[in-house]
């Protein structure tokens, strides 16, 4: 009955609008509002009006790239008022009116609508008071243009293999862009139900959060979707496209479908398998049935982030969902599996239970990031994703060790501030803190607490404290643990602790302080930046006398643990489950180096990797000489596990690229020859195939890639011959996917190879292959070729705008391209801001281009540019992160280059 009422009302109001005077743009004139001023001054909406149900009608025109629509919102008035204030951005309001519960008008005149563009709000004035305790219906008709960017209701295009251009319309609303598609109460705590109708032509389909309940035809088709469950506006989604799908059902009967453009439809098979496994896993793990009847996953050609968790209609970049059996490598499959695991975790963690406000976005993203690892480990153990968790935490360490870091929970009010919360701290640090908590509480306690949290707060909003309360039924050493007090030290203060370990007889002495890589212990600022920092650290350790993991909760600046006199060495932070750096004072690092050299398997591969990472981080922070860290990895000739091997190799590669960019020709050559000589056996063991375990394939890809970059004659000759054979086959020879990027990169060194690859980039239907080709193209040493790639990315036709930031970073990584990329950013700053300010891409561009620099001259240049864009720079936390990172690079070179030279000379003797 209510749906019928809506149809009648829609027709009535449409006729009402048409009877009103309109301006030359077709926008209805509103009554004089000279006596009215905007009634609300805050960024966040007033709480005296609460939405309950949206009835939304949308009619997009994919030819004119515009849309019109209407929304009827059932509202509950908490305090008597004449005003309704809600969000709207870039929409033309054609008509607004308020009805009482019987659908009678409160006014016989068109209601005044006031705009506050700076806050993205509109205010609708009702001459009759809306009375507290009553329900009303707010009805608005509106018009808008499909966005040219990647937010709101936006257009996307793709080309078929015959060159035909196709257009679709998609949505991306997180965090604050639902207001670009329809007027709404666009804050996560205003949860409501949504009934959506979409008008379309016969050659298209439409998708939304819920399944279609009926299709009507009035010239156009009108799809009516089932009413949604109660959810936040940022999770609403609708798409109009001409895609094909593949469908199956989970064990509990949920319909799962994967959508892609027709020619890429064959690449959807793997995603369907993964999605079904993940849905089954999460229903069991969370012990809560998935509350919707279907789950659609769709590959959008233009999509800026990796994916988005819209409830029942998750959207993905094509590289995050599609797997091409011929061109996707094992890393692509791991990525797709992890991303699907992330978005489907959100269906419970984030969608079912949502943070109250964006300052706690880590409750969504940190959990989903961590659940990637738990879910994939359970469903695809052969992918060995536990090996990737270490790198996730290392990435968080890198950001968190700079003074410009921030707490996991940070204030955020403006859309720009909110967007910046979607960063390494919310995702990676959030995941690693949860990993530490899970190991501290045990798997069983952690999982039962999560289930308790999800059940208690289903369809509601939460704060940090709600999670700690749900997990707090835990005893540690016989005492009730104040979990909130413990976890607040990890979420409400920034930074990462450094635990310094020393021995005094049978006691292990511990000292905690803040770990900083941007300020040295000898700097005057050091003591000031240490004040007020204290963590409750769940320590773990093993010794040479016992492999049993011992646990200790450190809550004071200093502490001691009795371990006995017979203990020779102690490894603190077992398997790196804790989020802290460890420094072994006195002869501690020599003992660790001796253990690795004499019996490295006495420590787990995670412990070996942790030691390597800690040592080189302590070098950067000024706590350890570089030669000690380099001596530590001398054991790697004996190492057979991929992860510590790649960690040690990764640091040597980092140093090589730094000195290469600084044009330290002699040092670059010496270091390159040392790496090739030291890892000769590992390089020679690699086969040019796709055979082996995930770990072996990962090692193959990275080791051979570095060998060719270092101009190893055997590697380069093999790659060049393989590339030439591939060219002669007219691209029909199937290259081993694990080495394809490296083969392309060597092939792109000459003009013919570069041109051939660029041609294939234009016609390939595999986004995975296109990514590898683009990486190869950006490896060119020809500045003109690099410039052309940057310009084409900015233009957005041959190379999509969604890939602009990654192309900039690829060029910046090239020693011949680092200044080219930075100068391109300076020259095109306004265009980049217009495209990317409301996204993570602008942060990635700022940090990614400047992290290549390590000279005082470059620092001055970057500071000068940031000063010239001061107003924007003040809004972007990335500018200070970039300066901190650059300063860190400079200090590292000033302190360590001579040590590196001397150490390399010693290795030759």
UniProtKB/TrEMBL annotation:
Listed GO MF terms: metalloaminopeptidase activity; peptide binding; zinc ion binding
GO biological process: peptide catabolic process; proteolysis
Membrane topology: Single-pass type II membrane protein
EC number: 3.4.11.-
Cofactor: Zn(2+)
Top-level taxon of the source organism: Eukaryota
Signal peptide: 1-19
Transition state stabilizer, annotated site positions: 427
Residue ranges of domain ERAP1-like C-terminal in the record: 569-885
Entry coiled-coil feature ranges: 869-896
Subcellular location: Endomembrane system
Catalytic residues identified in the record: 343
Residues reported to bind Zn(2+): 342, 346, 365
Record's keyword terms, sorted: Aminopeptidase, Coiled coil, Glycoprotein, Hydrolase, Membrane, Metal-binding, Metalloprotease, Protease, Signal, Signal-anchor, Transmembrane, Transmembrane helix, Zinc
Residue span, Peptidase M1 membrane alanine aminopeptidase domain: 270-490
Residue span, Aminopeptidase N-like N-terminal domain: 50-235
Family according to the record: Belongs to the peptidase M1 family.
Protein name in UniProt: Aminopeptidase
Organism, scientific name: Takifugu rubripes
Lineage: Eukaryota, Metazoa, Chordata, Craniata, Vertebrata
